[in-house]
Amino acid sequence: MVLTMILNKSKISVDASEAGALNAIGWKWLHPEEIIMKLYEGEIGKTYIVYSVMVKDAITRRLEALGVNELTPVTLMNKKGSGTVIIKVRGTRLALGRRISEGIEIREAVEHE
Questions:
Q1: What are 66-103's pLDDT values in tens digits?
Q2: Beta partners for 12?
């Protein structure tokens, strides 16, 4: 069995026999049906799960303080062609510029999450 994962913004595949060791160091695995995209690529009105936040440390800490963490549901409320987005996270609307929105990776939320 071959498993797929994200490593340094690239997808790689490994044999399942190697997966246990990689799980031990905290690597994230994708399910075959999961599609990872940048926040600004989402559709208005849909809810997504934050997959990863890859921006400068100071911005990451601020986003965490605002509730934007991995595995947090966010709803895309509006977006502009420039990449600026408005999201709703934990009941609060946030406006994020393109540099931040391209550093946040999301996946579609599944009904039971």
A1: 999 999 999 999 999 888 999 999 999 999 999 999 99
A2: 5
Residue 52's DSSP bridge partners are 105
Farthest-apart Cα atoms in the chain, separation = 44
Query: Of 82, 80, 83, 72, nearest to 47 (Cα)?
Result: 72
39: nearest Cα among 109, 108, 105? 105
Rounded distance between C-alpha atoms, residue 78 and residue 40, angstroms:
9
- Least Cα distance to 88 among 37, 34, 50 occurs for 50
- The four Cα atoms 90, 66, 87, 36 give a dihedral, to 10 degrees, of -100
Nearest-angstrom CA–CA distance, 39 and 87: 9
Beta strand pairing call for 10-15 and 36-38: unpaired
